[in-house]
Amino acid sequence: MSHRVKNLLAIATSLTTITSRSASTISDMTTHLTQRLTALGRAHDLVRSLPNSEVKAVLLGDLLSVLLTPYDESAAFSGRIRVAVPRMGVGESTANTLAMIVHELATNSVKHGALSADTGSLDISSTINVDHIHLIWVETGSPPVEEPAELHGYGSKMVARSISSQLHGAIEYDWQPSGLVVTLRMKKDRLSG
Question: Regarding the domain with residue range 2-190, which homologous superfamily does it belong to in the CATH classification?
Answer without folding.
Answer: Histidine kinase-like ATPase, C-terminal domain (3.30.565.10)
